[in-house]
Fold each of these.
Amino acid sequence: MGVVREQRAEFGVQPMCAGLGLARASYYRMQRSNAPLAIDRRHPRALSVKERDDVLEVLNSQRFWDQAPGEVYATLLDEGRYLCSERTMYRILAENQQVRERRDQIHHPQYQAPELIATRPNEVWSWDITKLLGPARWTYFYLYVILDIFSRYVVGWMLAYRESAQLGKKLIEQTIERQNLDPKALTVHADRGPAMTSKAVAFLLAELGVTKTHSRPYVSNDNPYSESQFKTMKYRPEFPERFGCYQDAHRFLSEFFPWYNHEHHHSGLGYLTPYDVHYGLAEKRREQRAGVLQEAYERNPERFVRGLPQPALLPTAAWINKPKEIPSPESVQAFNPSIIDIEQKNGFHNCPITNATPSGKGNSRGENRTSEDVVV
């Protein structure tokens, strides 16, 4: 900096900075920082210290201590007195820490976004309840659905007249038993509805050893798989505007869920059915499709300008709130070694909830009779 300052008259600032590898902005910034500090001068129209003390004394007097500055200002004007403007009264009170919200405000806790990953079936389930319009206004039927987020397979559902924690508890208990799995290897995710956060369901999951997680309040994206499944159901062309009775709704659902599980080709599963992925048939289906594409390519290779077509890839993991990519420790440490120490001390690690247990590929399908799926 000193060389540039001494030789700038002869060679100029830009050539000197370029020769020394110094940015011109840095040079001018240092020049400004070395400049003498400006003197804090009081504005000629500002109140004196004594006048400000007098205003504060009036505001804190017994007559005005429970009134707003606007009320004090108007009262003094009616009495023929003017001390300062209303805004200046607020400034004086703020300088003396006498302006605050008088009523205690509700401070909502900060909820951390759930981060769940499923790499196989029966690892993470998502369950939710949706309303189905009944025959008359203000009448509803309540549909309970438990969905495996990896395979999108509906492992259990129930239609009821009301939303009840006891019904939800019974559905979860029966579904775990029917799927013949180890409850300790399972995570059940739900939103914060009354039935989901009830003690009955919490005690059941704790007793079985099931890990339980919840969405953040008013965040529908924290339970995307259940919401997407409900949308698929309600966007079906045969879904009615209203159901005439309980039996009508039950008949529709008894036809919809077999279609959804066994016939619906899900885009998130490489256009396989949830049944194929849930019960370990995905690889076989993909090999079969690859053979069909191979035959089509051999018959007319000129039609495939990009070479041999391949079927869609099989799903490897299903996330709820997948964390952002974190740079590798080597690259971060090369840039700034102190960052690694800070992260380790602060516990800066995104640890998704997962259950490292053997694959459930060999699990038996179990019976899926209507009498077991529906609780009245």
Note: Residues 318 and 337 are 34 Å apart (CA to CA).
Amino acid sequence: MFSLGAGTFGLLCGIILSDRLGIDPNTNKNCINLILPLAIILLGFGLDLNMLASNKIGVAGLYTIIITIITAFSCTLLISRVLGIDRHQAFALGAGGAICGNSAVLAVAPSLRLSSKQTGSILAVVNILGLATFLSVPLLANAIGFEPESAGIWAGSTVHAVPQAIAAGEAMGGDALSLASGTKLTRVLGLLIVVPGAIIYSSQKEKSGKKFSSGISRIPLFLPGFILASMLASFLLPESITQHIERLGSLLMVPILILIGLSIRPRELLNVSKPIMIAGSLSTACMMLASATALVILM
């Protein structure tokens, strides 16, 4: 029903041991930033662009990403308004759920002039919901009866963080890993829209160019490497070689997810704003439902 992949196991172990080991999160972050780009580029060798070019998978993936982003943002803003959450916090929460978790929140926070406390509360909620989607998507995909292709697209379009989306794909097997990676990285490109959108939404004109550049700089530079690796695997290299390279990339994801787990303090995650938690949870549920419905119709 659900294969607990090595990445999933590593993340959960990291969370359990985080309080006992007490490793500095900044040290973890530096190690993650060093290994993650290489791992994702290597995973690019597992994505067959010929498969994405097919009308069925390519169109389904693109429409699912668009539906996910629109649903996450619109539901977050609407529910936040009902709950009385500040509109700038609502925008940051929507960006985290719709695009790429922590990176999206940190990219828009300066333009929205969020305080450290406000940003921290949103990041805590995004981390909790990211963990929830990461663990639930493989189970729900199996219950729905998704094929690995559909399951991979669903993981990439709903799980918040890049490493967790990839690990969810790993847990579902088949082409789910590569499609989860490709779909998630395509979704990350939504930063090109939400960063300037945050500037407009907050009605700030001063130093907007600087804030825009700061936000855009959060778009991962390994994206071109992932695309190039996919092109080499699709058109030049034999499958016997690309499979081994992709396998190496998936193995590198294990220590990354352990380090991410060690950075999460369970006690800190409990001290979050209840209205923000409610808004994030409801919008995440709506996002998952909308994207799953789209995949059922399109695939």
Note: The mean pLDDT is 82.
Amino acid sequence: MKYHKLKILSTKNIEEGLELPVTGTSFSFHEDKIITYAIDYGEIEQKEMPNELDEFLKEQEKKKKEQEYEFKQKFQIRCGVNFFDATEGFRPIPLKEEKFFETKTSRFMLKLFNNFFKKSTFINNKFQKNKRAYLLHSDPGMGKSAMIRHFCRQSLKHEETAVIQVGGDVDFQKLTNIFLQEYSEDVKRIVLIIEDFGKRDYATNVSIYNPSCLNFLDGVSGLFRVPTLILCTTNFIEHLGPQLTNRPGRFNRIVRVEPPTDEEVFELVEGMAEIKLTPEQKMAFSGKNMTPDHAIEAILRNEIEEIPLEQAAQEVMRERDGLTSWR
């Protein structure tokens, strides 16, 4: 805190320690001047006190309003899709249309997500709960993020929806402060997406997550004022510990995203490649526990490298089975 010197106009009836009419401000004497400190309005440059105290107070009030306005411009929760940056604030991001192929797991989860918003008023009235949090885990490439993007596109059909995307290393203290502030008045429900929650650090063999996320997920009083759905993804569920995986008040449900069935893989390949698979091609894709990412890569190799689809699928599977470092 920088000191701010006030020019003393009169010493009559002034005692050291007397409060000035500025909240949280006291002073001491030095060389016939009053030195103030602990001013609520934040750090201010050293300068002489204006002739009129009212002018000084008005200036500080103006600065306070400017700071509040700047905060709202950068950090206020608004409708639409925004990426959260702890320094830059919210940045709008596009949510483009993309092909989405449902699986048994995705149908189950999408129903859970939609039901929360459909029943949110009832749940809040009966249980005083405005938040529902899901932790989605799987091996890499199972389509967790694609499913969440699909759900967000559906949610945005409701104009009163705010979608916030953050990384797993998010500043939860800052995020908590933002959620405690006033939302934009048209925000009636929120979807918060936290990707790569609990990233694995192989150098230290530990899972990285900010412990302040525990308080955020617990939800201090008034933190979640509108129905808020939190969707987190991780590839390292086994490393997070019971403080996250066995506390329903934090994550209400832990869901494993299973690989698609053979029939679901066939549907994905036929839809993406716009072809009808032959029996030989189906054989190349069946019984492999193939992820959506693997299936799409086989399609791309078929197109780009001009090799048979069966060969592309076999190559992708051989490469997968030869790599064990990510397991």
Note: The two ends are 50 Å apart (CA to CA).
Amino acid sequence: MLFDRICRDNAIAHRLTQPRHPTTTGKIERFHGSLRRELPDDGVPFADLAAAQAAIGGWVTEYNTARPHQAIGMAVPADRFSTAAAQAEQQLLPLRLPAVIALAPVPPLPADPSPPAADAASVPVPESSPAVYQGGPVEFDRVVPASGNMQAAGRQFWLGPHRSGMTVTFWAATDVIHLTIGAARVKSLRSHLSAADLASLAAQGGRPAGPPPLPPAEPGAALEADRVVSKNGAVHLAGQYVAAGEILAGRQVSIRIQDKTLMFFDPGTRELLRTRPSPLTWDQARKIRGTRPAGPPPRPSAEPVTVQRVASNTGIIMVTGQKIALGRIHAHQVVTVHVAENTLSIELASDDVRTVRRTTTQPVRSIKAQQPRKAAHVP
């Protein structure tokens, strides 16, 4: 948790690799291979743990300060961290560390000829007590249980079983709660906490929070919210139901609320799913439960989007705002269209595919073909 806090304070994203995938950690795996091959495998058994630690420490020192490496032009790794450019970069953007470890005194090496300190008590030791909470946002950490349903601050937070065992950092204020994992924001929700609740969290081990992982939204800026699409293909926003599409029924989606457009996208991949005209004003949108400042705009999938259309009486279909004449011979037929970035491919028969150039940038608004009209009621 301390390592993740250091990364977060220095705006470093702590990215985790997948288990049992050594190809994603090539450099450290190469280091481990050399260490195993040259020290434990070929060396004699160590007398005790202290002897093993001393041997490993000497090998690491030699590896980093004396052994040339072909990958860096036969230099040693220590050269890369002691150049004038590296020192200038450290002075320009120093590493921020917690006070408890920032100025820890380093004991002199046994071979150091310099005289020891006269009195160890004279060495200044930084104050390691945590900062006193004086109001405002609070940060605290929780571990995701196996179920993926976390209980924190008197509320449940769903993160999914695939995140079980991960440490989640909560940034809690009276207006919003941000959840981050390894300095990456995974969820933001409208807060249910009062100032007294934040003080209680601080007393239970919370700490004064730093800057929020996501700045507050400016007036008129895009907002986002999470919803589950109903079985009728609608979501509830600002006291009214907004059509999302029957194809999304029962699905968890995120909604980007812009001036005149609602963009429905996958919360995990930010893949654009549907777009709809927005009936909401910005003042209405900012009062929606669970809204947050919007992230980057969602993008359509790189793969072609497959849709269906019913040809008109004259054999014309419309896809992404573009009219395509198929001919009267295809009137009233249901055709499948593959919508790519620059082309539209229409399947007219099992072996007849017509490809035309796409002339619009309008996103796909509907997937299914037009539903047939219901027959008149017969008493």
Note: Confidence is low (pLDDT under 50) at residues 372-379.
